[in-house]
Structure formats: structure tokens, C-alpha cells
Amino acid sequence: MSILNSKVPQGPLSEKWTKHKNDIDLVNPANKRNIDVIVVGTGLAGGSAAATLAELGYNVKTFCYQDSPRRAHSIAAQGGINAAKNYQGDGDSTYRLFYDTIKGGDYRSREANVYRLAEVSANIIDQCVAQGVPFAREYGGLLDNRSFGGVLVSRTFYAKGQTGQQLLLGAYSAMNRQINRGKIKPYNRHEMLDLVIVDGKARGIIARDMVTGELERHSAHAVVIASGGYGNVFYLSTNAMGSNVTASWKIHKRGAYFANPCYTQIHPTCIPVSGDHQSKLTLMSESLRNDGRIWVPKKKEDAIAIQQGKLKPVDLAEEDRDYYLERRYPSFGNLVPRDVASRAAKERCDAGFGVNKTGEAVFLDFASAIMRYGREAAAVDHIENPSEEKIRELGEKVIEAKYGNLFQMYEKIVDENPYKTPMMIYPAVHYTMGGVWVDYNLETTIPGCFCAGEANFSDHGANRLGASALMQGLADGYFVLPYTIGDYLADDIRTGPIPVNTPEFDEAENNIRLQLEKLIKNKGTRSVDYFHKRLGKIMWNNVGMSRNEQGLKEAISSIRELRDEFWRDVLVPGDANEVNPELEKAMRVADFLELGELFAVDALHRKESCGGHFREEYQTEEGEAMRDDENFMYVAAWEYTGDPGKAILHKENLEYDNIEVKTRSYK
């Protein structure tokens, strides 16, 4: 075990980033045109990084497995993006955004990175407005804000419920400009399958053309991984079905440490599971918790009657409803952080108060908001003594203007009108706070290999606050990586093009070819999805919303057995030299089967509860997370040894010089 060097600059927190930018080496504009950079992943982090690096003059190659960068999973983000611009005049500031993020992550994130994130957040909004992102605006013309969980201010900028899509289109337009200039060469429908290291430095990748099946060698002076998170290790999650850990896991197996894999976010506001036929879950934006009130029946007999369809939720009297978040957390109410809201929902459902057929759902009710907005609208329109029907009609129009596409999506999936009856929601796997370990420069433990966005671990600690994912992705891509990668590339101005006809590229390509051939020739009896579903059930049951020592040990043993069975009995039809989705999935599930074990190992070693990592043995009398700051205030970064169960632990100790570390309270 070693103590990792995060390379955080010296000096006052508020001056670190400015001083660092002034101190790092730069690359002459004339030299940038001789330097190549590979960017894997074209979501918000990868797309913004590629566009900015190309704008600076570097030659950029981008890789995505989708048919277009517009298909990146960033498009699915709904509710908004945080920034400390204080348009509301409600007391927000760079420091408050920094503090809320550290507290929301349960004091398990790196102080300097989080402050930098808060510091550059305002620049992101200006950048996106200049690109034409249609943020919502107030009557006076200023950009509008709404609230998200874990904060007491309104700092979330949004474009209805389509914020991720609009931001991604902004980054994509910036990419297209550089593609047109010839500075970005896009490789769509290509998947990175290995990293090539030459003389200890990342110098390229092996990618598979997913149309022809051909393996390709691509060289560069630096490689950026921006391939998103690994929530699909649970099979059922809010992630797109193609989302995977392969790029991150391949560089992990080449020497990049993997940090805090057990820090995975369970989002409280998702459409509940309806049956074993499902392949993914649907997120309902956290922004809905601005106006929706979460409740279950106070009486168990009422809950049973609702489950059986004998009682409708709208018929239950107000005094018979338990608005449990408002009851338990009066200060934050329905806007507590995601980990807190998720565990509270699970507790109510486990106690028998769930409201759907499976007993695993709670209500998200907009009736109060509809009537409140309706009365306001009636007053604005000078309607005297409006009827209840008129108030409801006016209120529904206000809600439709704010959340219309989300309500429409819910109705299409569930076939119930959420304007008339409460939505049903339940927690589901969403975002991953863990990921590839990076230093302050976003460089991994492999020189020349950088990692940005959700793929790295750096900013969210043990729990991500809502609307911070888009913020981190764009901060890394637009405003951090373009500076820090230059400091590394300044030593490469005389290197010249990196050749691909070398033993290192030979070895990497042969390594992947053997894996593909082994899967194609396996001739087993079980589909890839069969193994993925089984892995997902092990993960959800033993490493899900709550964990304990016995369950984690069982998970480690079960995953090892499942991995052995996978390589013995998986059936991959077709050939490697053609379009073959099953082969693609098989490679990704093979990586998930290794990650899943490390995930459980990490959760077992961390004998505390913090944020999204909840060990049942370590909780307060009120059921809240109980941290152990004396023994576990560090980042757990794991080194690959050939066996996920025998990974070597390296620690990055976390120090907080600018805030007081204390038990989180949202009451």
C-alpha cells in the first residue's frame, strides 16, 4: 500500500486553481498542431474536451460506440445544471456551492477539486448561453433557477426537463465546427477495447469497428477517457443499456487505479420495477421534488388496500397521509439529498407501507402545487372567486410549462395521468461517484492517460448532489483538462508522430483478438443477458441500497462463481468480423463481472456508512449513516493484480482545512 500524491497546489484554497494555471507549462500554438490527442467518449465531458482541445490547435480523434455523439447518455439528464451565479439573490456563492457539495458527499471528496468545480461553474453557464442553449428565463429576462436536493438555495439552471439534451447539443455543435475544420476526426460506431502503453506512457488505443468487426490501432501523445459511469453493473439502472465500464476497466488493467467503486448513487425518483421483463429503469427528474410531495399511507391497512386496487390514493384523506420526508427532515423536507431520500423510501416500503402491487413504491404528489400555482395564476389574471376546477386548470398549465415533458413521459410508460393521480416512484441505481483515480490535473496513475466526467472519482465523494453531474462533465471538458493536459504535453513537442507498428501495439491487439475469439468459439448454452441479469440480482440484493458483512462476502463468492460459469457457458452467436451486438455485450459483461467483485471488496473493507455506501452495522439509532472519520477518511484506490479479489489498496488521505467536518444533518 502507498499514499497517493494528488498534486494539489499549495496556497489558499481560493487561489489554488489560478496559481496552478499560472505555474503550469504551456504548449506553443505552433506546436499544438503536431500533437495528437485521443478522446474516448463524446458525452458532455468528452465532447466538450474534444471541442476545446481542437479549438486550441491539437489534433483530436474521438471515439464513441453510438452512431453519433448526440446519442451519448448525457442526453438523458433532465433536471438541470448547478452554478453559483446567485441570480436568485438568496445567498448563494462559490463557497456555498463548494460547501454543499462537500457536505452532500459526506466529507469523502477532495477539497481542492470541489472548490475548483464551484469556481468555474459560472463560466459554464456563460459558455452554454453563448452556444445557444435555451435555458429557462424569468419574466425579467434573467436565467431562471430551481432547487435540487441537499441545498437551501436555488442554483440549478434548466431547460424544462431536457437540460442534458440541450447541453449535449451545444457541445456537439462545438465538436462539429472542429470536425468541419479537420481538427477532430470522429470515429463513431467504434469501441475502445485496450490501452497501449509505450515506455510507461499512454500512447494509443485498440478500437473495434463495430460495423466491420475490424480491430484498429490508433496512436496519440495522450489519451482521455470520458466514457461515463458503471451503474449497469446492476443490470437494472437508469443508464442507457449500452452504458458500460469497459474503457475505464481496460485502463485499470493497464495500471490506472480504480477509486471508491462502492460509492454508487441510488436515485430516489424513478419509475418502479414492473417485472423481470425489464432491461432498464426510467428516471423521473429530481426537479420534480421542488413541487411534488412524497408520501405513503399512515395506516398499513390503507397501504394494502391501495396495493390491491381497492383504494385510490386521491381518496385518502390528508390526515391519513404520511409525508415522511417532511416529518423526518423539516428543514429540507422533500429536498434532502438522494441517498437520504432513497433510504427513507426503502425504510417505509420495508415496513409495509409501499403503494404498488410489489409494495416497492411511494407517491410523488403534485396536487398541492397545482392548487397553489392555480391560485397565484388566478390572482395574476384578476379572476375573482375562481372555482376549484378553474384553479386546478390554471395550476396544471403552470406545472405543464415547468415539467410537461416529464409528465408526458410518465403517462406513456405507466398509463396514468400524473396531473390527476400521484406518480409512483422508487429508488434505482443511477450515478457512480467512484471511478478511475485522478490527481488534481485529472491524470490517472498512467502517465499521459487522463480521465474526465463521471468516469473519474474526483468531485462527488460518497454521494452526488442533483444537477452536479452536468456541472462536473462540462467543467472538466471546457475549463480544466485543456489547461492541465498542456502541462503534460509540453514535454512532447519534439516527440513526433507515434508509430503503430510496434511490439506494444502488437501485444495489445493480439490480447483483444484472443478475447474475442475465445467468446466466439465458446459454444456455451446461456445468453449474455442471462449472466448480466444474474450479476445484477447479486449486486442489488447484496451490494445495493444497504450492505452488511455477510451479504458482501456472499456477493464476492457468488460473483467469482458466476464469472467462471460465464467463461465456461456463455453463448455468443455470429462472428467477430461483422456487426455483432451480442459480442459487444459479452465483452462488456466480462468487465462487469470483474468490476462487481472489486465493488463488493471495496464495500466490505469500508467499515462505516457514508453517503450512498450504507453498511447496516454502522448506523445511528435514527437509521442515519454513521461515518468513521478516524479510520476511513481517505480515498480507496485499488491497483489491479490480475485478480479483482486481490487488488492492492492505496490510500489518498483527505484533509479539510477550510470547512468543519461534522455529522450531516438535514433536519
UniProtKB/TrEMBL annotation:
It is found in: Cell membrane. It is a peripheral membrane protein. Its EC number is 1.3.5.1. Coiled coil: none annotated. GO terms for molecular function: electron transfer activity; flavin adenine dinucleotide binding; succinate dehydrogenase (quinone) activity. Its main location: membrane. NCBIfam families: PRK07573.1, sdhA_Bsu. It catalyses: a quinone + succinate = fumarate + a quinol. It is an enzyme of class 1 (oxidoreductase). Residues 532-666 form the Fumarate reductase/succinate dehydrogenase flavoprotein-like C-terminal domain. GO terms for biological process: anaerobic respiration. One of its GO terms (cellular component) is plasma membrane. This is succinate dehydrogenase. The keyword Nucleus does not apply. It comes from the Bacteria. SUPFAM superfamilies: FAD/NAD(P)-binding domain, Succinate dehydrogenase/fumarate reductase flavoprotein C-terminal domain, Succinate dehydrogenase/fumarate reductase flavoprotein, catalytic domain. Residues 36-470 form the FAD-dependent oxidoreductase 2 FAD-binding domain. Its cofactor is FAD. Keywords: Cell membrane, Electron transport, FAD, Flavoprotein, Membrane, Oxidoreductase, Transport. Belongs to the FAD-dependent oxidoreductase 2 family. FRD/SDH subfamily. The keyword Transport applies.
